TrEMBL record, chain A:
It comes from the Bacteria. SUPFAM superfamilies: CO dehydrogenase flavoprotein C-terminal domain-like, FAD-binding/transporter-associated domain-like. SMART domains: CO_deh_flav_C. Keywords: FAD, Flavoprotein, Oxidoreductase. Pfam families: CO_deh_flav_C, FAD_binding_5. Gene3D superfamilies: 3.30.465.10, CO dehydrogenase flavoprotein, C-terminal domain, Uridine Diphospho-n-acetylenolpyruvylglucosamine Reductase, domain 2. This is FAD-binding PCMH-type domain-containing protein. Residues 1-175 form the FAD-binding PCMH-type domain. One of its GO terms (molecular function) is oxidoreductase activity. It comes from Carboxydothermus islandicus.
TrEMBL record, chain B:
GO terms for molecular function: iron ion binding; oxidoreductase activity. Residues 20-126 form the Aldehyde oxidase/xanthine dehydrogenase a/b hammerhead domain. It comes from the Bacteria. Pfam families: Ald_Xan_dh_C (PF01315), MoCoBD_1 (PF02738). InterPro entries: Ald_Oxase/Xan_DH_a/b (IPR000674), Ald_Oxase/Xan_DH_a/b_sf (IPR036856), Ald_Oxase/xanthine_DH-like (IPR016208), AldOxase/xan_DH_MoCoBD1 (IPR008274), AldOxase/xan_DH_Mopterin-bd_sf (IPR037165). This is Aldehyde oxidase.
TrEMBL record, chain C:
This is (2Fe-2S)-binding protein. PROSITE patterns: 2FE2S_FER_1 (PS00197), 2FE2S_FER_2 (PS51085). The keyword Transmembrane helix does not apply. InterPro entries: 2Fe-2S-bd (IPR002888), 2Fe-2S-bd_dom_sf (IPR036884), 2Fe-2S_ferredoxin-like_sf (IPR036010), 2Fe-2S_ferredoxin-type (IPR001041), 2Fe2S_fd_BS (IPR006058), Beta-grasp_dom_sf (IPR012675), Diverse_Oxidoreductases (IPR051452). Keywords: 2Fe-2S, Iron, Iron-sulfur, Metal-binding, Oxidoreductase. GO terms for molecular function: 2 iron, 2 sulfur cluster binding; metal ion binding; oxidoreductase activity.
TrEMBL record, chain D:
GO terms for molecular function: oxidoreductase activity. The lineage of its organism: Bacteria, Bacillati, Bacillota, Clostridia, Thermoanaerobacterales. Pfam families: MoCoBD_2. This is Nicotinate dehydrogenase medium molybdopterin subunit. Residues 2-266 form the Aldehyde oxidase/xanthine dehydrogenase second molybdopterin binding domain. It comes from the Bacteria.
Amino acid sequence: MQKVDYFRPETIEEALELLAAGREEYKILAGGTDLVLHLRERKVSPKALVDITHISALKGIREEEGKIIIKAATTFTEVASSTIVLEKIPALADACKVVGSPQIRNQGTIGGNIVNASPAADSVPALVLFDGVARLTSKRGTREILLTELLQGVGKTAIEPDELLEEVILTPYPGSVSGFYKLGRRNALAIARISGAVELVFAGSKIAKARVALGSVAPNPFRATELEQFLNGREFNEETKEELIALAKNLVADKLGSRASAPYKREAIAGVMREILNRIEQRRGR
Amino acid sequence: MHERIVGQSPWRVDGIAKVTGKAVFPQDIYLPGMVYGKTVRSKYPHAKITKLDTSKAEALPGVLKVFTARDVPGHNGHGVLHPDIPVFADGKVTSINDAICLVVAETQDIAEEAALLIDVEYEELPAVFDPREAMKETAPKLRENGNIAYHLKIRKGDVEKGFALADVIVEQSFKTSMVDQAFLQPEAGVATVDERGHIVIYVATQYPHWDRTEIARALGVSQNMVRVVTTAVGGAFGGREDMTVQIHACLAAMVLKRPVKIVYDRSESFKAHSKRHPMYMDYRVGATRDGKLVALEATIIGDAGAYLSWSPNILRKAAVHATGPYYIPNVKVDSYAVHTNNPFTGAMRGFGAAQPPMAYEAIMDMLAEKLNLHPFTIRWRNAFERGSETATGQILDMSVGLKETMLEAARRFGWNVEELK
Amino acid sequence: MEMKKLSLTVNGKLIEREVPTNIRLLDFLRDYLHLTGTKEGCGEGECGACTVLLDGKPVNSCLVMAHSAHGREVITIEGIGTPDKLHPIQEAFLEAGAVQCGYCTPGMVLAAYALLKENPNPTREEIKVAISGNLCRCTGYNKIVDAVELAARKEGK
Amino acid sequence: MKKRGIGMASIFYGTGYGNGFPDVSSAVVEIHDDGSATVLTGAADCGQGSNTVLAQIAAEELGIPIEKITLISADTDCTPDAGTTAATRQTYTSGNAVKLAAAKAKKILLDFAAGVLAVNTIDGLDIKDGYVYVKTFPQKRISVAELASHARFKGNRLIGEASFTTHSTMVDPETGQGAPYYPYAFATQIAEVEVDTETGKVEVIRIVAAHDVGRAINKIAVEGQIQGGVAQGVGWALTEEVELKNGQIQNPSFTEYLIPTALDVPEVTPVIVETYEETGPYGAKGVGEPAMLPTMPAILNAIYNAVGVRITELPATPEKILKALKEKEQKNA
């Protein structure tokens, strides 16, 4: 392993101090499931690591005025087993349950998943689905930014080197039902080939409101507004499902263009959407 | 049976050590004064080495020595059939994973750091990656006598007469993939010189006695001076038949008089050991209306990669097993092992008998479909029994439980075997 | 080399050492404490051979910096049972034939241990999920699942 | 839509090095004067369990409990060459060598016992539970420990050494005719799969694996070999491939080279068919390699049975299956 110094702040203030001092040369270490590997492979060579996992203020999930706030260093295991998440935003629980493996879920954090900005980040479609907003803090102050704006391509974000992702704020529709599904090459330890998340609010047999997000079809997970517009006001029946699937296929084809994975993904999205809708249907019945 | 322990399932004799973490794999050995080796490998699949400068690496504090081809006192090569895998590349590389040199340093970190400082320049040579291309006259020649390392013919009966008797004929091509043994324990070894002056290596291997032969030959010492101790072995599946760390570690220990440890990471493990031969298999099989096989013709081409390893034996095994466990009176098989500049292929569970089932078992189903027979029925009607003759003319005078396996498997799926026979 | 003091509990024992800042928990356990039951199979969190329990939860020690474990409790395979006093899970692994090459075994035992602590009566499916981060190339997993079921029964008694 | 299918595959497998190559294993067995014994064999146990199986064979032959056997394997300074742990040969070839070596050591003990027990030939003697006894008159017995100690002080050395060669005959390079392997093992596996016609994903639901192993020396170990072989077959069929580009491996990691996890391997029902191979130790042949051979073709046949497309290039990825389904659809349209 290459040389690297290590700091272990116990408060957010200490962490911000370090980040301000270290600038580009320091890197934040959370779960480490990607960073430790990248260090070994010499993909990154920071002077020091700022380990934020000992900052208790960066852990936890709470509900506040209809919003669900997840602190950045909360692990996937913690998110997946949170009652608030399971009840209010089950799509996120679905997503966190299928991250890597039990070990990775015990280590990896929601914040890490966001800042890595991978196209295949498992939890991000579900975070984007609920209009996720990131709260970034630095010694200069605090700002909030939509995840869809924070993510700026593969491995790129709008986070400044002195900023710390403190929490992500989700705003589910009241009374919504949601679901997520990821298609991988195997049933555990799999990278998402394609993934999706859907949130619906029902009014009788109709869909009153809808949100849809997709992963692994663009540089970052994104909101599929075309599909949302289609769903708004429709009857939730087989016909709608089939039409949605057809639209999703077109959307994926458009997004991927002539990429090598396009012929497969534009077909496979059908199975992914179907599975998500099945989950929503099961949850709606409860 | 009157046996008392045979047929029972006592705990594994190494079981307690393994469940408590006490079992010793080579990476678990720590000796006083131990130093660490890191291999530098080729960057090109076929190239001349025009420059190899190890001075920067050797100047790094903590580096003891960089070993290259010049440092091999005996034969610079090893291999299970023919020692053509260079211990260190000597002026030329034939595959991208060829070892160029070994850096030995006081710590693993320093060895890795120094490995990045090895300066190698190459002059690329034309390369070939598809064995079917490599068979052509125009292909770059990787061996003086051509790229075809092995060709076995099986000729039994008269296939043209056989096909004339067939009511249905299926023709189909198949290709298997290159796969890795992917054992869980990456290659590792610790070599040391003991109080007698003998070279001792603790290593996970499939054949310590052959390793000894090859280590002694490369080091130019007599075999009694080399001791190979097999530690716990973390899976092998054929991938530990050709050697990896053995000669490197022993050479370094012999020269430096320090215990030398080499542990591969997963990536290097993938690069260092043999792979399963991808095979191109063109098949043509005929059967009569009642499902009896009458003729089979097959061409099998296996990618041997850069080095011979077990390739002739593997393509022989493919040819011998090309018919499947079925009696066929007329058989013509041509099986080839062909060198390319791909990573070398060698032993893996099934050893050449693993690839042909993809072809012959697909074809059995294809024939059954054409003849409107159940997959069980067509197999049953052709299955080997005690006394059957194989495509090589061998009489199966041993226990032949094929039909019992068919019956047992089918019954557990609820198939009515009496009707299907 | 930057050194820092690291203080943590390993298998119930408080350990304090000056160690480099760039080592992983896996390296600390193996190279410094010689607890070599923790294995490295891939170095990238894909195989689970290096699984240890960190504050009771299975993690890949190849992806944890040693200093991140400061002040925490680590349990390795050496803390589960000994040859003289096997843990029921270890016994069950031997009885069910869940061990072949043994390289994945310590990680598997720890994954099973963590599961049974949380869920003493798991279904086969739950067992498979719990060991889904531990690759095994020898057994095909069937007998490992059998062993965890057997251990649950043994411990339930 | 999810569609299920069933596929069958049978194989044969010639065990041993074959083709007339010297396929030899050697072993040494020494009975100590307390009735315990040491076995020396060059056979490396790679996890498949040869150390246990060979100890069982020695224990059986010597009539002593397995706990009284110490087996030392694969150390070139002290164990005799037993060939490679490969070719499904150790149970058969080294098993025979250990059995013969144990029989030789045992014969020295029985010869001595014949004198002590005053019987006129050793043919009527056997060893069971640590006692040498007259088979037709079991009251007449003496403990192995007492006997061995006695024998030792009379200058006898209870050491047996043996080599066993598996026979095979070279094939003619022009006609392939010959008897290249011995013995052959046989197997049939049936797989059930579920194919998602929209994602191309294949779930293997269950596999029954029936194997003619001659005789299972260690039943659970044989089952473990079968289940492990099936798992490797599942990986080969569906996900595993070393991807090359200009001779360079593109996926040298477990993140990208995908072997099956616990959630990818189905429940495997091993069925042991015992045919008692006359030339094998206690009737045993081998199982290591045959275990994985029928799995891949059985899965491919099951995919065809489920959705009507035949994958002819491994692995059967979702991409290939969807592509084949599309082509089939277009052909039918």
